[in-house]
Write a structure and sequence with these properties.
Blueprint (H helix, E strand, L loop, with lengths): L1 E4 L5 H14 L17 H9 L3 E6 L5 E9 L2 H4 L18 E2 L3 E6 L8 E5 L13 E4 L9 E2 L18 H13 L10 H14 L2
Antiparallel strand pairs: 1-2, 2-3, 3-5, 4-8, 5-6, 6-7
Helix pairs in contact: 4-5
């Protein structure tokens, strides 16, 4: 196993990240992304000043290095892909158009099957700490669990909007604690976001 860290960023490049996301995202969005809605959270800024990405990699005998997805904090280039933005999404049954432009994905959550990411929520509906943005877990691969209707701006039914943490530092501390408290097993990735989310949610109330 090894820890891979990206080179640090200066404040100029950190401040440019929301504008790079707006410029580089290749698809048309029904609800446009606005850089002003994504002020860089203070704890995330401190992280980027130290390293621009962080991931655990592991190597099985006779194979190349693989990324352990429960610990994969994106590089700025990966953030700029807007991986949690929904393009042309609708709900099942009534085909109402939905959007997730308020979710800025910054790390994978680690599920083996579903697309799952940790996201900063730029929407003002959720509680937040000064200088920070609440963090939500998104996994919209097989069902829509975190989106808003385009026509009304309301959350979709049963949207899971409980923040995992109210600051990047709290999220990172809880994630590290969750990962290091159990033996490493690359085949049991689901255990981290499943059990970790409860612990992360508890952290957000401290």
């Amino acid at each position: 196993m090894r820890l891979a860290l990206g080179p640090p960023l200066d404040d100029r490049r950190i401040d440019a990240l929301p504008y790079v996301l707006e410029k580089d995202y290749p698809w048309w969005l029904t609800v446009p992304f606005r850089p002003a809605d994504f002020p860089i959270p203070a704890g995330y800024r401190e992280f980027l000043r130290i390293c621009s990405f962080a991931r655990i990699e592991y190597q099985e005998e006779g194979r190349d290095w693989s990324v352990y997805e429960p610990v994969n904090i994106f590089s700025p280039q990966e953030v700029a892909r807007g991986q949690s933005f929904t393009v042309g999404g609708t709900t099942l049954g009534d085909d109402r158009e939905i959007h997730t432009t308020f979710l800025v994905a910054f790390a994978t959550a680690g599920y083996n099957v579903e697309a799952s990411r940790w996201c900063f929520c730029t929407d003002g509906d959720l509680p937040r700490q000064s200088g920070e943005l609440p963090i939500l877990r998104e996994s919209n691969d097989y069902e829509c669990d975190l989106a808003k209707y385009v026509d009304t701006g309301e959350w979709t039914e049963n949207a899971f909007t409980t923040p995992a943490a109210l600051s990047f530092a709290a999220w990172l501390d809880a994630l590290v604690s969750e990962v290091t408290r159990r033996p490493f097993d690359p085949d049991r990735r689901d255990a981290i976001p499943n059990s970790g989310f409860v612990r992360l949610s508890e952290c957000s109330r401290v």
